[in-house]
Specification:
Blueprint (H helix, E strand, L loop, with lengths): L1 H5 L16 E3 L5 E3 L3 E3 H21 L3 E4 H19 L14 H20 L8 E4 L1 H25 L16 E15 L5 E12 L5 H8 L5 H12 L4 E2 L4 E2 L28 E2 H13 L3 H12 L6 H4 L7 E4 L13 E4 L3 H14 L5 E3 L5 E3 L4 E2 L21 E7 L3 E7 L5 E2 L5 E6 L4 E5 L5 H9 L3 E7 L1
Parallel strand pairs: 17-21
Antiparallel strand pairs: 1-2, 3-6, 4-5, 6-7, 8-9, 10-11, 11-12, 13-14, 15-18, 16-17, 19-20, 19-21
Helix pairs in contact: 2-5, 2-6, 3-4, 6-8, 8-9, 8-11
Length: 473
């Protein structure tokens, strides 16, 4: 819940004191580093999290009990938001780079509330609690969501800026920084004995494109294929695309950025954190394509060499069954290692690949509750025709006894599932017309229709009682 409230901030104006690259220069010749910045990825995740919490609160209509310390912070945030709303502040048509006074004051109160909360619970909670009615929580979250949506809108206005980027790409920004332009001394000193100041005003700083910006933004797009496709086309033709490797950079060119940006500037372009190909981040992007039902675009990227095992093995320089931490991009000064993978890594990229595999072969929601509240099962794969029969490939096609093309995979690592593709076309998000479920005792359950009813669906979930599933399209 701390994350829910402390990040209720407007990226593009209101800020959170997160670890970031920017520094503040003061007349006392010391730097207050890594303190003032904002990240849109956290904003998008917060937006999704709040929407989920609201949906649960609205559904079950139960009181929410939180620690007293947290309610103190929530109340401070709500008072600050109420003051901002009552001030009558509206975004002007041309947003200034200087943070408006009303938004700065809002940020200042919210940031202080968060720091006070952290101090209050540094060692323990008091044990006292506060209860909120469900409708009260729902109204609060509605206000928070409205404010976050304003912040997202502002982030598109400020956009990005960098080498070859004039800020008109329309691609979601990832990071913003804030320079303190006015401050006053307070009576405090840090552990080095240096004087501290209170910030009174700030201005917005912009950075180049980072792939994580559109990746996280695409998660917020619901059932709007045109909007997803628009983001994809913009990224495809932007500085995030490595045209030589047909992959995606972690960031666009960082040429011209200062060391204030952090350690990534220390690397040569195309290496590690500076404009290389991070497989984990690239796979996050590909996952959003298939999750957003951009099937043709996703499989085009896959076959184009962006996803293992369709990369060139000689160029990649390691087994096509093994992910790398990063791939040296075409921005690296030495052309001989363009496309070569470095540092074996089996964590993030593998997790994203498993999510991709699930969407390809099983679908987004195999088990669901019907109108009667009973569990049913439905397989909705996203498999291109060339995985059944690839005229350009070396592997032979497989057929069932009726001459239908088939693909077989294991569900829950133990149940053989066979897809029978009568017409041999793409199976993009469509359920089967019928099923044949063979049980462990060799008895057969025939199902007419796109969904498997409750009794059999539950047996499949228990795994042990089912031998095979045949799905016919």
């Amino acid at each position: 819940m701390d994350f829910l409230v402390c990040n209720l901030l407007l990226d593009g104006f209101c800020l959170k004191r997160c670890v970031f690259f920017r520094t503040i220069h003061t007349p006392f010749f010391f730097r207050l580093t890594g303190m003032i910045g904002s990240g849109m990825p956290e904003t998008y995740e917060l937006y999704l999290l709040l929407k989920y919490v609201k949906s649960v609160v609205d559904k079950y209509d139960r009181p929410i009990v939180v620690p007293k310390e947290l309610s103190k912070m929530i109340n401070s945030v709500n008072r600050a938001l109420k003051k901002l709303m009552s001030s009558g502040f509206k975004d002007p048509e041309e947003l200034p780079k200087d943070v408006p006074k009303e938004l700065f004051e809002y940020w200042d109160v919210v940031a202080a509330a968060r720091e006070n909360y952290r101090n209050d619970v540094e060692y323990y909670f008091s044990g006292n609690t506060t209860s909120y009615k469900a409708k009260e929580v729902s109204r609060m979250i509605d206000n928070w969501l409205d404010e976050i949506e304003l912040g997202i809108k502002r982030s598109f206005y400020f956009a990005t800026i960098g080498y070859g980027d004039d800020g008109t790409s329309g691609i979601p920004a990832c990071f913003f920084s804030y320079d303190v332009t006015d401050w006053e001394l307070n009576k405090n000193r840090n552990d080095k004995g240096l004087p501290c100041v209170n910030a009174k005003a700030m201005k917005v700083g912009r950075f180049p494109l980072f792939l994580e910006g559109p990746v996280r933004y695409m998660k917020t797009i619901e059932d709007k294929e045109d909007k997803m496709k628009d983001v994809y086309q913009r990224v495809l033709t932007s500085g995030l695309r490595d045209k030589e490797l047909k992959m995606y950079f972690l960031s666009a060119s960082l040429k011209g950025q200062t060391y204030d940006m952090g350690r990534q500037i220390a690397f040569a372009p195309g290496w590690l954190e500076n404009q290389s190909i991070w497989m984990h981040m690239s796979y996050k992007y590909y996952l959003q394509l298939i999750r957003g039902k951009l099937y043709k675009e996703f499989f085009s990227e896959m076959r184009g060499g962006g996803i293992l095992p369709f990369m060139d093995a000689k160029t990649y320089g390691r087994s096509l069954m093994e992910c790398s931490s990063f791939i040296a991009s075409s921005a690296f000064p030495d052309p001989s290692i363009h496309g070569e993978g470095f540092l074996a890594r089996l964590s993030g990229s593998t997790a994203e690949f498993l999510s991709i595999w699930k969407l390809m072969f099983i679908g987004p929601k195999p088990f669901f509750l019907n109108d009667s509240g009973d569990v049913e099962m439905q397989l909705t794969p996203a498999i291109p025709s060339w995985l059944f029969d690839d005229p350009e490939g070396e592997a032979p096609a497989h057929y069932d006894e009726d001459g239908n093309l088939i693909v077989i995979f294991k569900l829950f690592a133990s149940i053989d599932v066979t897809y029978h593709n009568k017409h041999g076309g793409d199976l993009y998000g469509v359920p089967p017309k019928k099923y044949k479920v063979t049980m462990a005792d060799d008895s057969v359950v025939d199902v007419d229709g796109p969904s498997i009813p409750a009794d059999t669906a539950l047996e499949i979930r228990r795994v042990k009682g089912v031998k095979t599933i045949d799905a016919y399209f």
